[in-house]
Design brief:
Layout: E1 2-6, E2 13-19, H1 29-40, H2 48-51, E3 56-60, E4 62-63, E5 66-67, E6 72-77, H3 85-88, H4 112-119, H5 125-131, H6 135-152, E7 156-164, E8 167-168, H7 177-186, H8 194-209, E9 216-223, H9 239-248, E10 253-258, H10 269-272, E11 276-279, E12 283-286, E13 294-295, E14 298-299, E15 304-310, E16 321-323, E17 330-332, H11 343-365, H12 371-387
Antiparallel strand pairs: 1-2, 2-6, 3-6, 4-5, 7-8, 7-9, 9-15, 10-15, 11-12, 13-14, 16-17
Helix pairs in contact: 1-6, 1-11, 4-5, 6-11, 9-11
Bound molecules: flavin mononucleotide and the ligand C=C(O[C@@H]1CC(C(=O)O)=C[C@@H](OP(=O)(O)O)[C@H]1O)C(=O)O.
């Protein structure tokens, strides 16, 4: 399974094509819209999210509520395009207007300067339109297809916020999947700890008032995976490695951890590795889950627990120094609009990019042409694992 996205932040639309989903799988646009709506919520977003109402147009691969086995094409229209038609239209600018609203001032921390150098653009708009995290809406659409496949196989995925600006949520490993989903949905910052969530909101309001931005940590939690998905035999088949790559590819994400993550560097082996148990009903299990559901690039059958670190948003109302690429003069960056914190939205993006990698690994391991056959094979495998 693979996917491609196309489209600019203020262009007409975003397009996603997902290829490799089996035929005969139930899929509706509501499955996708639910995910798109989740991504748009969250305290700390700027004015752009008030303009957009992300809804998908299914443009291929689905008929009467079922997948065909052909590529699935999805379109999300940018409502903001109507304000940018003259700037983002495909026709050349009228004579004499070429330099109108050309962007020559790169923002520290965004893709602006490196992108302009790499692609030889003197108008930084040609970079920022595609490097913008608007594209994550298209990635969420792809992930929503994957999440739907996992749901029909009894695998649930949720993303939430663990930390914002140094304020940490108290972790509660006993929370059920249903509680994780419900609380993260109710919380304006998608935090499972209500008290910490309130403090996070205050921190976001303060950052916004100060013209600054803040980052944090998101966590994705997956239940229902059988043991032995992924592989140890080759670097590019290790599922934890693929997940790490997918998480680090999200805009502004700078680090990934599984389970106790970097904390493992400070502990002894006896305090890190999860002891193995067995009982008649479940088969093998781990007494703890410090390694976050992976050993040897394969799932252990315990929940997958992965964290991603998001840096603060680069576009700031508070000026940072930069250099104009035309005049080469120093200037203090000032901007029109931006998010001050997007960690709650990014937790949803992370949920979907991780879901995609997990679904892809499952499709590689089991028969993948027809969904009912896939489902039967996964059920038989689960039973095999239980009796092993
Ligand atoms: C959901 C989401 C929303 C974002 N919103 C903004 C924003 O409003 N302004 C901004 O400068 N960066 C925003 N970013 C981050 C930039 O897109 C990102 O920093 C930029 O693409 C450069 O990539 P890098 O930080 O991974 O190096 C957002 C990221 C995410 C995931
Ligand atoms: C549009 C989205 O996020 C955008 C990501 C983004 C950036 O630079 O990454 C900049 C902002 O867009 P604008 O410049 O239009 O205000 C965010 O709103 C979205 O998440 O749908």
């Amino acid at each position: 399974m693979r996917y491609l996205t196309a489209g600019e932040s203020h262009g007409k639309q975003l397009t996603t094509i997902v290829e490799g989903i089996p035929s005969l799988m139930p899929l509706t646009k509501e499955d996708i819209n639910e995910s798109l709506l989740r991504r748009q919520k969250g305290h700390g977003r700027g004015k752009r999210m008030q303009i957009e109402k992300d809804l998908v147009d299914m443009a291929g691969g689905v008929r009467h509520g079922y997948t065909l086995g052909s590529p699935i094409a999805m379109v999300i229209h940018n409502d903001d395009f109507k304000h940018w038609e003259d700037i983002m239209g495909e026709d050349p600018f009228p004579e004499g207007e070429q330099i109108r609203r050309v962007v020559t001032r790169p923002r520290p921390g965004h893709a602006d300067l490196n992108g302009a150098i790499k692609y030889g653009h003197r108008d930084i708009r040609n970079i920022l339109e595609r490097s913008s995290a608007r594209e994550t809406a298209a990635r969420v659409a792809a992930g929503a297809v994957a999440k739907t496949l996992l749901k029909h196989l009894g695998i649930q995925v949720v993303g939430y916020v663990n930390e914002i600006a140094g304020i940490k949520a108290e972790s509660n490993p006993d929370l059920s999947m249903e509680e994780r989903i419900r609380i993260s949905e109710d919380s304006p910052v998608r935090c499972l700890d209500e008290q910490a969530g309130k403090q996070m909101m205050d921190a976001i309001d303060k950052a916004k008032k100060d013209g600054d931005s803040i980052g944090g940590v998101a966590e994705v939690y997956i239940e229902g995976m059988p043991a032995g998905v992924g592989s140890y035999v080759h670097y590019d088949r290790k599922l934890d490695g693929r997940i790490a790559g997918a998480v680090a590819s999200i805009n502004a994400f700078k680090g990934v951890e599984f389970g106790i993550g970097f904390e493992a560097a400070r502990l002894n082996g006896s305090q890190v590795h999860d002891e193995i148990g067995w009982n008649e009903e479940e088969g093998y299990f781990r007494q703890t889950n410090r390694l976050g559901g992976f050993e040897g690039g394969m799932t252990t059958g315990m929940p997958i627990v992965v964290k991603g670190v998001m840096k603060p948003i680069p576009t700031l109302y508070k000026p940072l120094q930069s250099v104009d690429i035309d005049s080469k003069e120093a200037f203090n960056a000032s901007i029109e609009r931006s998010d001050s914190c997007a960690v709650p939205a990014a937790a949803v993006v992370m949920e979907h990019v991780v879901a995609f990698e997990v679904a892809k690994a499952i499709l590689e391991q089991f028969p993948n042409d027809q969904f009912p056959k896939l489902k039967k094979a996964v059920e038989e495998y689960r039973e095999e694992v239980r009796r092993f």
